Structures are given as C-alpha cells and as structure tokens.
Amino acid sequence: MGKRAIAFAASSSRRSINKQLVTYACGLLGDVEVEILDLNDYELPLFSVDREDELGQPELARAFLQKITDADGIIISFAEHNGAYSAAYKNLYDWVSRIQPKVYQGKPMVLLSTSPGGRGGKSVMELALAQIPRFGGEVRASVSLPSFHDNFDSDGGRVSDPALALEVQAAVRRLFDE
Fold first, then answer.
1. Whose CA, among 13, 83, 109, 164, lies 20 to 30 Å from 116?
2. Residue 82 gets which letter from DSSP?
3. What is 4-176's CATH number, 3.90.1150.10, 2.170.270.10, 3.60.15.10, 3.40.50.360?
4. 75-90, pLDDT tens digit by residue?
5. Long-range CB contacts (< 8 A, 24+ apart) of 167-172?
6. What residues contact 2, with CB distance under 8 A and at least 6 apart?
7. Which residues is 158 bridged to in the sheet?
8. Residue ranges of the alpha helices (H) in the chain?
9. pLDDT tens digit sequence for 111-168
10. Cβ(2)–Cβ(32) under 8 Å?
11. What is the dihedral angle through the alpha carbons of 65, 14, 114, 61, rounded to the nearest 10 degrees?
C-alpha cells in the first residue's frame, strides 16, 4: 500500500488563500494518496474545561484525530491571525490535544504559510516551528510564501514566482524523504 497524507489549511475561511496553497502543494506529491480536510467540517464549541466536563470528547475531535492517526504524513498551511494561529485551528487543536497530547503522533510534516503581506505569515510559522515538535510532529520542511496575490496564480492554482515554486516543491518532496 502506498503512502497516505492529509492536508489542511489552518483556517475556516471558505476563500482561504492557505487552502489554495496547501491544495497546490498536495498536487506535487505524485502518487501519494492525499485527503484535503476542511476545518469547517470539524467546528466545535470554544474549548474550556467546563465544556469538556459537559461534552466529554466530542465525536468531531475524535474524527479529526483519527485522520491524523491514519495518515503517513501531514501538510498544513497556516493562516496568520494577528501574528498567531487562527481561532478555528487553535480551538480544534485544544479539543484534540485533550484526547491525545502528542496530536501529531510522530508524523512527518511540511508546514506552509502565506498571507497577502510581505512576510507571508512568518509570525505564525515561527510559532508553529516552535510548537509542532512539542505536539509530536516531525517537521521536515517549512515555507512561508510572501505576498500571496503577487506570487500565486489563483486561476491556475499554482505558485507563479519560479524561485518560490521551487522552494515549495523542494519542501513537499521532503515529506516522505527517509
């Protein structure tokens, strides 16, 4: 059986530029079976210990964790909200981490980020690079794509800047490098 990967944009926006980027990245995986998840399919109430006492472990949190468990690798493209994770990603992570503290279970990961600005989500990427290993992820590569609208052809679904396209391609190839 071949490799299986999951991918998602850490955003709940239906027009997410990070979803466009992660979808492009998945297209570079060749013969890997890829499932692109949508965080909107895993929307949960805001996490608190009171809610946890009331709800236990919600089925959606367990379902998301099962997707991670079943995958051989993970690609995430992080949206940056005020220099940090989006509330949608952080909330889902908070719920899932109560079931399995090492959410990413030693899986190889490629981390991406983008934004309309020139830093390309570098603040959230710095946060993810510091935290994901503590959450059980094995980060193989990361790329922050600056100025999304200048460097990504949304109609063609691809990174339009040749140097940045090569950088993303090289990162994605590292997902399953042994």
1. 109
2. T
3. 3.40.50.360
4. 999 999 999 999 999 9
5. 167/143, 168/21, 168/24, 168/25, 168/28, 168/112, 168/143, 169/28, 170/141, 171/25, 171/110, 171/112, 171/140, 171/141, 171/142, 171/143, 172/25, 172/28, 172/29, 172/75, 172/110, 172/141
6. 31, 32, 33
7. 153
8. 17-26, 49-55, 59-70, 87-99, 122-131, 148-151, 162-173
9. 999 999 999 999 999 999 999 999 999 999 999 999 999 999 999 999 999 999 999 9
10. yes
11. -10
What's the length of the chain? 178
User: DSSP labels for 130-143?
Assistant: HHGGGGT-EEEEEE
The two tokens of residue 149 are 């609208």
Place of tokens 């919600």: 58
Q: Are 99 and 60 in contact (CB under 8 A)?
A: no
With tokens 């603040």, the residue in question is 123
Task: Say what the pTM is.
Answer: 0.96
What the block records as the tokens of 5 is: 């990967």
